[in-house]
Amino acid sequence: MFSLLKVEEGVRHNPYIDSLGYPTVGVGFKLGPQGANLKNYTFCLTDNVINVWLQENIEIVYRSMQQNEKINQALLYSNVVRTDILISMAYQIGVNGLAGFNNMLAAITEQDWNNAANEMRRSIWAKQTPKRAERHAAVIESGQWAPVYDFVINQ
Predict the structure, then answer these.
(1) Contact at 8 Å (CB) between 75 and 65?
(2) Minimal CA–CA distance to 53: which of 6, 99, 104?
(3) How far apart are CA 65 and CA 60, in angstroms?
(4) What sections of 20-99 are H helices per DSSP?
């Protein structure tokens, strides 16, 4: 999971302004409100701190996913690889954003992986982040990391 999010979100030790104008650091950790002055954030994170924050954020996201009935049902039918993709989506667009993928989640509970992937590809999210969406859809479809991602997942 760490490897996936680090590939998709990137890793930055120093605060920066993300593409939506939020001060951000680490692996997509928002620090403050949109438009905040970066001068308010004068620190550098070590790899250890980034990993601790990332682990905590993943746990928070996953617990929230389990509390959503539609998402939790999809998780029951997902292998570890597909679960990690759903976590990555929730990490990026929020649990409520993921919950809005009604047709995809229904297809997952029916184990209709082609339809689930196609629902991902047809989404507004896919128009906003087309490369990430296509990688994620391919993994949902196959249930395997390779050949889309060339790393070994340790978690």
Answers:
(1) yes
(2) 6
(3) 9
(4) 47-67, 69-76, 80-99
Per the CB < 8 A criterion, the answer to whether 71 and 98 are in contact is yes
pTM of the predicted structure, to 2 decimals: 0.94
Helix (H) or strand (E) holding 12: strand 12-17
pLDDT in tens, the chain (155 residues): 999 999 999 999 999 999 889 999 999 999 999 999 999 999 999 999 999 999 999 999 999 999 999 999 999 999 999 999 999 999 999 999 999 999 999 999 999 999 999 999 999 999 999 999 999 999 999 999 989 998 755 44
Helix (H, G, I), strand (E, B) or coil at 121: helix
Residue 72's identity, in one-letter code, is: N
- Nearest-angstrom CA–CA distance, 96 and 67: 11
Angle formed by the axes of helices 80-99 and 69-76, to 10°?
Answer: 170
Domains of the chain: 2-142 (1.10.530.40)
